[in-house]
Amino acid sequence: MKRRVVITECSAITPIGYRKEEIVESLRLGRSGVKPLRDDGLLTNHLHSRVFGTVDYPIAYEFKRQYRKTMGPVAFYACQVAKDVLERSGLPQEFISSGRLGVAFGSTHGSPTVQRQIYKTFFNELESKFSSIGAVDYLRSMVHTTAVNITRMFGITGRVIASSTACTTSSQSIGFGYEMIKYGMQDAMICGGADEYDTTTVAVFDNLLACSVDYNDTPQCTPRPFDTRRDGLVVGEGGGAVLLEDYESAKRRGADILAEVIGFSCNNNGGDLILPNLDGITAALRLALDDAGITPKEVDVISAHATATKMGDVIEAQAIAAVYGDSPMVIGLKSYTGHTMGTCGVIELTLILYMMEQGFIAPTLNLDNVDPRCSMLRHVRELSSGNIGIASIQNFAFGGVNTCLIIRNGREAAA
Amino acid sequence: MTRDELKGNVLSILENDFEFEHPGLDDNLRDDHGFDSIDAIELLGKIEIMLGFSLSREEKEKAMGIRTVNDILDYIEKIQSSHHR
Question: What is the ipTM of this complex?
């Protein structure tokens, strides 16, 4: 059994906005969401990098206490975007609780904010006779907190996949959700990821000399994917969700089809856990094309992982060139949002969906002088209008995990 | 603490920390206010802080039969008196 799988809803909380209109405006105006790193009272002053892809606008959450009590900040992002896609879908509660709707959702490491509170309590109150670790602290901080807070809030009884593979977390969620439906195990899946503001993640990359440090006074000028003056990634926060459905069911109920997922790949470099690997990434790109059953020439746009690290961008450019030559347009969307970690796959997919729907292609920001080692690609350097028929979204993670999602424009999928 | 003082403190905890609206002394905690077993554990932590001493495992297990606000007050009074003996 192989079924077609379509995306019928999407929502994202990103450093460049929450609602579609805000995000599209940011993309059209070239507005960055990278801001000065907020002080956490702990690590900030020890870090070299002082920039962050920041969600700094208020979000009107309306969750009842019975749901809030098991949620850390990461689950607030997750449940909000899941609520958006479910409410807009109009799917009846009978279906939502039927066991045929599942959830594939993850985060890099649950809620570090709650974990930090637990350790603060532990270290501050060693002499105390009271136990101050809350009954719900584990539920708020555990690695699958996003997925199961979503199931709890909406009464979802289907499969649960809680991937947690750093930067490929949400692209894996979408890919695994796609496979669940394609092979008939579920009829619909809510897929995505979230990651909250967290300086420990910045510290990890800072220690590895992988964070941007030269633009602390001009945050909007970094990250700089493929640019000669790029100096590393910028950690960010956010959340995103897509609703995947079996094509026939979506068509029957008259749902808007935003795009069809036509291909997915996930592999591992089989060795080093940090260094980008040309063979592994190249294989991932080819596997996704094979799954989609299309030729490289049919892909119009590539959303590159493009974190703006010195070697990562070069290896990715080499892999794209080896598989695609210079035919597809290449965009590095982290130049707008920073690297939102576990969320980046679903956010970048959502941005591409908006561009597909509205017929424009946003340029890579801060790409003033293309690094000669990356110049063999067709970089998008100016805002342009145009139809995106097929797009590929590439993401690579620590641990050597690579993913690639290929989607076809909803207008063409519905035809 | 007298029963009235306890009542004031417990109602304040239920309203402020558990967002109860207009709690009545004989309301069913679960049916009327959505109070569940996780909340019960959280409430015991608040009671420990209010009383100024830790509850034993046996004392905590006895709290699992509580159904109403009055049950909470009865429970705390018993705990207080056993600790003062």
Answer: 0.83
